[in-house]
Amino acid sequence: MDKQISKIKIPATDRYQLAATMYGSGQKVVIINPATAVPQELYRRFATFLMEHGFRVITYDYRGIADSAPESLRGFQATFSDWGLLDMQGVLDWVWAKYEPTSLIMIGHSAGGQLLGMLKGNERIDAAVTMSSQSGYWGLQGGNQPLIVRFQVTYLMPIIARTFGYFPWSKIGSAEDLPLGAALEWCRWCRDPQYLLGDDNLPLERYQQFKVPILAYSVDDDDWGTARSVRAMMSAYPNVSFEHIVPFDYEIDSLGHMGYFKRKSEPIWHDTLSWINQFVGDKQLSQLA
Question: CA-CA distances (angstroms) from residue 140 to 7, 22, 257?
């Protein structure tokens, strides 16, 4: 492993140990918050790119996912909202206490942007970028997804998750397995037209208090993160700029829900970096390149 890249542990707010990776050094910090059931490894190339442009970057796995999972998920207690209220919050608090960043940027992929609004102490964040952070409500999905997603979150996932004691996603797809509580909570949200914003058990008042500048991306060929589903979720935040990516404009054949974080998307990364650098003091992209 590159000597500038190291594996670390970060405590969540309840002291649960999260597997994390640190790229680079310095006090300009980026935290990358992952999507549902997506391991931090997906973000390695993007994190390396940001490190090469002067940032310390932190990636991590939510509890119950990839390297932050126990040997068995059966009986493991973890909900989707725990990922925001305990894990994401813990990473933010740890980074702030340890490094006192001069600039702190949040990147949120899908769930990683949906949950940002639950954070306490968000005034410490200078800016955020979200990628396909959509409402998961089945009726807002694109292509042939609405009926498929409705069936999955109403019947398939809850039945399988309750039967096995967790949702064995790795056995039937390419995602990580989900803890039972996370799977059931997510399915319940996906059946609600307001998605998680309809859950009165959550500290929803914090979303309007999250006045951090946000650049919210949607992708033209992402049936999960359609422009309307991204707007439905991200309009809960008061300070959002929306940007719709058409892959062909960058001479990219396709992106879907995951493609932004793959090497082929580097031309888009430069646009993102240019936007981020408005919020990191007087160093501009031209000085960092």
Answer: 38, 36, 15
Question: Could you report how far apart the first and last alpha carbons of the chain are, in Å?
Answer: 24
Structural domains of the chain, with CATH = 5-136+203-288 (3.40.50.1820)
Comparing CA positions, the residue from 67, 84, 87, 66 lying closest to residue 15 is 87
Q: How many CB atoms lie within 10 A of CB 242?
A: 15
pTM for the complete prediction? 0.95
pLDDT, one tens digit per residue, over 206-231 is 999 999 999 999 999 999 889 999 99
Q: CB of 114 within 8 A of CB of 108? A: yes
Q: Hey, how many other C-beta atoms are within 10 angstroms of the C-beta on 251?
A: 8
Q: Which of 204, 219, 181 is nearest to 115 (CA)?
A: 204
Helix orientation angle between 157-164 and 180-190, rounded to the nearest 10 degrees: 170
